[in-house]
Design goal:
With 436 residues, the chain is α/β, with parallel strands linked by helices. The chain contains twelve helices and 17 strands. An eight-stranded mixed beta sheet has the order 3-5-4-12-13-14-11-15. A six-stranded mixed beta sheet has the order 6-2-1-10-17-16. Strands 7-8-9 form a three-stranded antiparallel beta sheet. It starts with 10 loop residues before the first strand and ends in a 17-residue tail after the last helix. The model is unreliable at 1-6, 196-214 and 432-436 (pLDDT under 50).
């Protein structure tokens, strides 16, 4: 890099307006760096997307920005997860302090807070190339437009066009032969308990709206903060019921062939998808198909998500460009830490940019601090997902026998991940604390 890179950078280009992009923008503003965010979608996809989990390690980061309280009303708090075999027999329970959000809600709230603070978001900007010069970096977009800044941050996910432009020889994401779907629905109201009657006047309404025209024939009690998971004969299913009757659910199954396009599969026959799911869980505890049928009766629109993994990327930055979140270290969703890792990245990178005078040094320190931790969390996710489906009776018996033992190790690992904290006031350095 030229000597001009030693001066404090003043304007950043942020590629991607998912979760990490807006949070990165808010941290840049906090340290006095202006930015613009560029999103490839033509309009916000506020009505689409699956659920995403945030734990205390990332919520504490959002606390630093003062936005934690903005998102918590949209959370489904999960205190534990119980694992059961396909007939409903309990296998193991793992304590879990997590909050599940509709990804669309989380993105919208963070984006709107950025807008409120003066951060511009440009939609319909599909990156095609990154061009670096002596004193600036320029992003070139498919519509023919271009924008320049002092540095560029790739917050554009596992299929990052930023990564592809800067590291064209990097291995592409690999399909894991796994996919899934899920969502939120409203259940039929249950008779209120005496305590609920006494507190009804002060109770909060659910942030997850229900259709006014939908019928709610299925009625289930609150799971009291517990997510109930089932290892089905052919697939994995989990659900949780809130006190107000909102039910969140998801499922995963094996699918050997990758889709023609990596993007979310949205354009498929909804009736066929529900029929496929009902067949998938035939022979399992009937409650699963009751929940799926209830979602169909409420006209829930399903989206099918294929799970990809990203091989370790040895370097996350080059010149005036740095990768953040899934673009650098994507993890499969089984550990529930993908979004949390990306949010952690934003505060660490902001500290490095704040405290290190030259850009290349800031990027280098950012990777030094984050690399080992991200690699450990990614490894946890890979281990956690391997037992969700089993192909025969023996493998199911073996899995169900070993899960309680396996969960003890996972619980210990996850507690370490959740306990990770980043001190905003501390000077950026690769201390032992930062490497936890």
């Amino acid at each position: 890099m030229s000597s001009s890179s030693s001066s404090s950078p003043r304007h950043a280009l942020v590629i991607g307006c998912g979760i990490s992009g807006p949070v990165m923008g808010l941290f840049l503003k906090k340290i006095g760096i202006t930015c613009e965010i560029f999103e490839s979608d033509a309009v916000p996809r506020d009505g689409e997307g699956a659920a995403v989990s945030l734990t205390e390690n990332s919520l504490s980061v959002l606390d630093t920005l003062g936005v934690r309280d903005l998102i918590l009303p949209y959370a489904m708090a999960t205190k534990s997860m119980s694992f059961n075999e396909y007939r409903g027999r309990h296998i193991a329970t793992m304590e879990q302090n997590a909050n599940m959000f509709l990804r669309a809600d989380l993105c919208r709230v963070l984006r709107e807070e950025g807008k409120r603070q003066g951060i511009d978001v440009h939609f319909g900007k599909r990156l095609v190339a990154v061009k670096e010069e002596a004193d600036k970096v320029t992003a070139l977009f498919e519509d023919g437009s271009s924008f320049s800044g002092d540095f560029l941050l790739g917050c554009d996910g596992i299929f990052s066009r930023t990564r592809r432009s800067v590291f064209p020889d990097a291995a592409p994401p690999a399909y894991t032969q796994s996919c899934g779907t899920g969502g939120f629905v409203k259940l039929a109201p249950r008779p209120p308990t005496q305590q609920q009657q006494q507190t009804a006047s002060s109770s909060l309404t659910s942030p997850i709206p229900s259709s006014s025209s939908a019928s709610h024939p299925l009625s289930l009690p609150s799971t009291n903060g517990e997510m109930k998971a089932y290892f089905g004969l052919r697939a994995f299913f989990a659900y949780q019921v809130l006190d107000d009757g909102t039910l969140g659910w998801f499922c995963n199954w094996s699918e050997p062939s990758p889709p023609a396009d990596w993007r979310t599969v949205q354009d498929f026959d909804q009736g066929e998808c529900f029929h496929f799911l009902m067949d998938l869980f035939k022979g399992d505890i009937p409650l699963i198909n009751d929940i799926i049928s209830n979602a169909q009766q409420q006209n829930q629109k399903l989206a099918k998500y294929h799970v990809y993994d990203l091989a370790d990327l040895p370097v996350w930055h080059k010149g005036r460009v740095c990768l953040v979140g899934d673009s650098a270290h994507a993890t499969v969703p089984h550990a529930g830490q993908g979004a949390s890792l990306a949010i952690e990245d934003t505060i660490v990178l902001a500290k490095c940019l704040r405290d290190i005078p030259d850009l290349e040094g800031a990027f280098r320190l950012f990777q030094d601090i984050r690399f080992a931790r991200c690699r450990r969390v990614v490894a946890t996710g890979r281990r956690s997902g391997g037992h969700k489906t089993a192909s025969n009776m023996f493998s199911r018996w073996l899995r169900d026998t070993l899960v309680p033992i396996f969960m003890k190790g996972v619980k210990t690992e996850m507690e370490k991940h959740y306990a990770y904290r980043i001190d905003w006031e501390q000077h950026a350095s690769a201390t032992p604390h930062d490497s936890v």
